[in-house]
Design brief:
Thiol Ester Dehydrase, Chain A, alpha+beta, 3 helices, five-stranded antiparallel β-sheet
Length: 136
């Protein structure tokens, strides 16, 4: 479908006492890639809100395959894999030098009407149109 890759470089402030990236910081890397992906499809968080919807993450799963270390450069790939009844995005973090997979993850977001707080069972027409256009 639609994908983006975002380069990252591990900073000292991302490390835990064992000198590897603290597990919670991986979520920030995913968010950076997700925002780039939403920009790529032309329907970022500001545009979502302008159409009357919030898109909270209701499911996040992360599989840590290998550690990220200080100074390491990596690519975070985010790909839309489902979008008609919510937004599912798959992620993969790979070492830039070797291409080795270090992390796999996915998020699932649901549309919620901003005016009523109602959870919707289908994605907004605007999101569907933007994903289809970006995938064409």
């Amino acid at each position: 479908m639609v994908s983006v890759e975002v380069p990252i470089k591990v900073q000292f402030y991302d490390l835990d006492p064992m000198n590897v990236v603290w597990h919670g910081n991986y979520v920030r890397y995913l968010e950076v890639a997700r925002c780039a992906l939403l920009d790529r499809i032309g329907h970022n968080y500001g545009q979502m809100a302008a159409t009357g919807y919030a898109w909270p993450v209701v499911d996040l799963r992360v599989k840590y395959v290998g550690p990220l270390r200080f100074g390491q450069e990596a690519l975070v790939r985010a790909s839309v894999v489902a979008f008609e009844y919510g937004l599912k995005i798959d992620y993969e973090i790979r070492d830039l030098a070797s291409g080795a997979v270090l992390t796999r993850a996915h998020t699932f977001q649901v549309p919620v009407r901003l005016d009523t707080g109602e959870l919707c069972l289908e994605s907004s027409p605007e999101l569907i149109a933007c994903v289809r256009a970006a995938a064409a």
